[in-house]
């Protein structure tokens, strides 16, 4: 942030009194979002180093770390976190880049883009359940093939889901992270000057993918680096997906930390806090490793470009990328469809591919409570997404008018809630909130969600905002409009589609939050997600099916509106039809 | 570690009984009217969720008390919450009014003075409770002393698919059967409550003198007493589902495994669970239950009130309603819950007894005679050490 520079730009027209707050918005936002993370980290670090007055501990020491080191599963659990995190991120990134390289700008790509909203809105836990049922030995794939093709009358005793290598977990994460990285890539493509770069490279005799990876990829990657880091940190520390698809002997470190936190032996809470500190360091180390790999790959890439070879080319590349995209989308959507089927299934045993009969019993049973849950979920998500959107507009407009660009450091701070593992700061935040006398309840939960919602909204809105053609603003000023007029009458209406999309992304993020809702709400704020994860402990597929569908619907509706509303509003503006 | 913890906590100023006096029940009823009780209970079972919703509707009707079911993935979440509140000095107006609790969590909360009471034995419906015959005054060898009120009894049974196998008479027979049918049996992964219960049941099946289990583990030769247990588990593990490389994470998860025909045999802590699950299409109707000779472990489910609860009077009204013949009979019905009652039929008036006599127990439920004697829960220290050892041996094996 450079206020001096803002002062130097005296030429800026004196803002109206009601927007004099605008220059303060970026600072306010950074404070609002980093304070909870900071307070939470301190609240977690203290018990890790032995300070927890409620347990009668005030002597700082390293006992908690010693106890942690004595747990024989520590090494494997750490290795599992790192390996699944790095592998899921690398595979997701590779698949995403391959899809963009082969298909961007084509009609197929437009179709892929339309499929993103439903894929993104499927909550992680729901997707994980669906995938688990798809690939398990008693899952639908084997049911469809049994007994006529496989000869199985009973499910085989194969360790497919919850395998010790974490392969099922990696697959589940990839299926959900590819759509996210695609969304971020599409948003960033506008700044890569893709079409011209490709035209020039292809005129030099490179194939489409070869040209793309040599010219567009380096520019694109620079734009999506932070989202990639978010994916890495998330994949390493996710709790709900890892509990469903990940191994348990031992589990990943984050799952184990949550288990210790929930142990009746209160002394284990210190060990959990120590584990959270280790998890944090592990994420930092993995990010560092990734950074090194980036540098190494950049070196190799430059040598590759200099070599002047023209490959790779061939029809297999687009076919492969399309197959991968299809596979990852099908896994999520088919899994969800199967959960929908479970929600209306009577008895459905192996090896039948379809249930014996259909019944609405599960819906009749859960329907009434779902209404309340959806109202609470919608209120929290709507409010936090709206506040996040207003803050994001404020930040971006301050950047535009006063040059108050959130610097590299500020940007890292904004992403802190996404990169710092949730298990590392939420328990501390819960204690800090109680200490400060803040009431737990729907407001506190909304505020906590804002911390996670804002970065996604900002990420989603930032690029289209900056990509907006400034000459239109200049023209409007030339016609006599003030900065307010440009903002409200030209820029915001033109950016209607990205604004709604950003809102929908924020809404979906809020709907998916589990740990923040549970911990900050003190268990008193129930959303479809807390309900679904609580039910997940029971493994009742019918109940899970009902709640996963409700959860998906809650997240999907705003996406549908974000697609439909701009079309309706701009139906008489041809230039806005594709925005 | 826990011991020193308890000592430190005991040195803190004691928390006197603050709040409504259960002996003056009319005053409790008056105070309770209009209160909202946040009942923290495990939310993983659709049947219990529906039952709790029914309890809420009934106490709202009769006593003007609103019940909000806070659905927990793990009861220890509630313990964490009360602990966090005390850390922050919030000694009144807490978020939790009533908690469905089991032995280990109760022991932890009682030891740390996190509970309100004693109140249970002053509840009006306590007069009907079968104090002699049911494990209602001792929870995992820890005396309840009125700090928690019972509402259901449970006893270990094994569920099996009669289409694939016959009942087994002993723990040794289960091992022999597993060897002959690899991959068809498993148990929830300890420290899951039910998984640990399986280990304790196995311990009862192989131990020389069960008497030592009722005293703290450090008063006995722990290694010698548990050696046959580890021999048993060592022999069993390679023949488990997934060769013991993965385990179901909870009891109800086993139902899905039986329904998927991945396993044929599973442990349950509720004699009526199988019948209720068959009625809900969660299990095939060929599932039946058995108990091995020599009896199985039994215990009771309780509700307790945190020391800083906001609606203590309302919470006591709910606890009392749970002890009413109406609620107990409903819980016994396998179509609803299939939980055992804590009441003594002899103490009940005739019309109340009639409620129980009309209940059809369900095709998979054993009669009280077939269930046999309930073995007492071992002292919690056994469970703690066995859990820890199991985790070291099998929980991090990969």
Automatic annotation (TrEMBL), chain B:
Signal sequence extent: 1-18
Keywords, ordered alphabetically: Signal
Pfam families, A to Z: SBP_bac_8
This protein's record includes keyword Signal: yes
InterPro entries hit by this protein: SBP, YnjB
Gene3D superfamilies with a match to the protein in the record: Periplasmic binding protein-like II (3.40.190.10)
Keyword Signal part of the UniProt annotation: yes
PANTHER family with a match to the protein in the record: PROTEIN YNJB
UniProt-recorded name of the protein: ABC transporter substrate-binding protein
Species per Swiss-Prot/TrEMBL record: Rhodosalinus halophilus
């Amino acid at each position: 942030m450079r206020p001096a520079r803002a002062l130097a730009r005296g030429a800026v027209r004196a803002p109206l009194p009601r927007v004099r707050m605008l220059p303060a918005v970026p600072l306010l936002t950074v404070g609002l979002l980093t304070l909870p993370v900071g307070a939470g980290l301190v609240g977690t670090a203290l018990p890790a180093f032995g300070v927890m007055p409620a347990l009668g501990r005030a002597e700082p020491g390293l006992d908690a770390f010693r106890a942690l080191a004595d747990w024989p599963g520590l090494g494997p659990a750490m290795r599992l976190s790192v390996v699944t995190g790095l592998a899921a991120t690398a595979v997701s990134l590779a698949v995403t880049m391959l899809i963009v390289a082969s298909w961007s700008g084509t009609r197929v790509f437009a179709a892929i883009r339309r499929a993103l909203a439903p894929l993104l809105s499927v909550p992680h836990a729901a997707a994980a359940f669906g995938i688990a049922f798809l690939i398990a030995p008693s899952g639908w794939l084997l049911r469809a093939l049994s007994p006529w093709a496989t000869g199985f009358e009973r499910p085989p005793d194969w360790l497919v889901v919850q395998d010790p290598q974490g392969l099922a977990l990696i697959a589940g994460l990839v299926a959900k992270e590819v759509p996210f990285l695609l969304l971020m890539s599409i948003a960033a493509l506008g700044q890569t000057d893709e079409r011209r770069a490709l035209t020039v490279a292809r005129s030099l005799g490179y194939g489409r993918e070869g040209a793309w990876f040599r010219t567009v990829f380096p520019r694109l990657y620079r734009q999506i680096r932070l989202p990639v880091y978010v994916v890495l940190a998330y994949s390493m520390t996710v709790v709900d997906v890892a509990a469903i698809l990940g191994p348990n002997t031992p589990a990943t470190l984050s799952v184990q930390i949550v288990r210790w936190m929930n142990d009746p032996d209160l002394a284990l809470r210190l060990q959990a806090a120590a584990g959270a500190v280790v998890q944090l360091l592990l994420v930092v180390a993995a990010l560092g490793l990734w950074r090194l790999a980036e540098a190494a790959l950049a070196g190799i890439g430059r040598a590759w470009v200099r070599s002047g070879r023209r490959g790779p080319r061939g029809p297999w590349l687009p076919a492969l990328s399309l197959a991968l995209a299809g596979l990852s989308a099908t896994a999520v959507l088919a899994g969800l469809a199967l959960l929908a089927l479970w929600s209306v299934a009577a008895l459905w045993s192996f090896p039948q591919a379809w249930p014996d009969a259909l019944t609405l019993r599960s819906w009749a049973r859960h329907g009434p409570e779902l209404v309340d849950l959806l109202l609470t979920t919608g209120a929290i998500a709507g409010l936090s997404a709206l506040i996040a959107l207003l803050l994001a507009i404020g930040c971006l407009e301050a950047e535009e008018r006063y040059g108050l660009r959130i610097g590299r450091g500020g940007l890292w701070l904004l992403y802190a809630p996404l990169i710092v593992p949730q298990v590392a700061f939420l328990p501390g935040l819960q204690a800090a909130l109680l200490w400060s006398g803040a009431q737990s309840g729907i407001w506190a939960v909304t505020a906590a969600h804002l911390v996670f919602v804002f970065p996604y909204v900002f990420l989603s809105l930032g690029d289209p905002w900056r990509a907006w053609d400034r000459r239109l603003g200049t023209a409007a000023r030339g016609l006599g409009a003030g900065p307010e007029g440009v903002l409200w009458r030209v820029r915001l209406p033109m950016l209607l589609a990205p604004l709604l999309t950003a809102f929908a992304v924020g809404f979906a993020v809020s709907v998916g939050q589990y740990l923040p809702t549970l911990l900050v709400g003190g268990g008193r704020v129930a959303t479809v997600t807390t309900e679904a994860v609580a039910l997940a402990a029971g493994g009742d597929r019918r109940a899970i099916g009902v709640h996963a569908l409700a959860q998906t619907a809650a997240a999907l509706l705003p996406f549908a509106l974000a697609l439909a509303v701009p079309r309706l509003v701009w139906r008489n503006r041809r230039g806005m039809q594709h925005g | 570690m826990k011991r020193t913890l308890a000592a430190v906590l005991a040195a803190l100023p004691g928390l006197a009984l603050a709040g409504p006096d259960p002996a003056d029940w009319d005053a409790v009823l008056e105070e309770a009217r209009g209160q909202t009780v946040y009942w923290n209970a495990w939310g993983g079972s659709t049947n219990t969720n529906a039952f709790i919703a029914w309890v809420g509707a009934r106490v709202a009707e009769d006593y003007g008390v609103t019940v909000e079911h806070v659905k927990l993935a793990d009861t220890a979440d509630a313990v964490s919450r009360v602990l966090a509140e005390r850390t922050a000095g919030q000694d009144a107006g807490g978020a939790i009014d009533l908690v469905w609790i089991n032995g280990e969590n109760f022991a932890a909360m009682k030891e740390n003075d996190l509970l309100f009471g004693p109140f249970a034995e002053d509840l009006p419906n306590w007069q009907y409770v079968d104090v002699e015959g049911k494990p209602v005054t001792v929870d995992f060898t820890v005396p309840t002393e009125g700090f928690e009120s019972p509402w259901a009894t449970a006893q270990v049974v094994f569920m099996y698919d009669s289409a694939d196998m016959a009942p087994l008479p002993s723990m040794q027979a289960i091992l022999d059967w597993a060897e002959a049918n690899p991959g068809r049996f498993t148990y929830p992964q300890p420290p899951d409550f039910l998984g640990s219960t399986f280990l304790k049941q196995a311990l009862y099946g192989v131990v020389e003198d069960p008497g030592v289990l009722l005293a703290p583990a450090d008063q006995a030769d722990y290694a010698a007493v548990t050696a046959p247990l580890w021999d048993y588990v060592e022999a069993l593990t390679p023949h488990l589902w997934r060769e013991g490389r993965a385990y179901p994470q909870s009891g109800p998860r086993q139902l899905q495994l039986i329904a998927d025909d991945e396993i044929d045999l599973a442990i349950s802590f509720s004699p009526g669970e199988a019948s209720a699950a068959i009625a809900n299409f969660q299990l095939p109707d060929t599932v039946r239950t058995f108990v091995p000779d020599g009896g199985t472990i039994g215990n009771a489910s309780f509700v307790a009130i945190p020391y800083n609860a906001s609606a203590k009077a309302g919470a006591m009204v709910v606890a009392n309603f749970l002890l009413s013949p109406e609620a107990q009979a409903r819980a016994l019905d396998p179509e609803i819950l299939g939980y055992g009652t804590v009441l003594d039929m002899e103490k009940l008036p005739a019309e109340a007894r009639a409620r129980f006599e009309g209940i059809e127990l369900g095709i998979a439920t054993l009669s009280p005679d077939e269930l046999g004697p309930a073995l007492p829960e071992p002292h919690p220290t056994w469970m703690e050490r066995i859990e820890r050892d199991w985790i070291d041996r099998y929980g991090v094996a990969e």
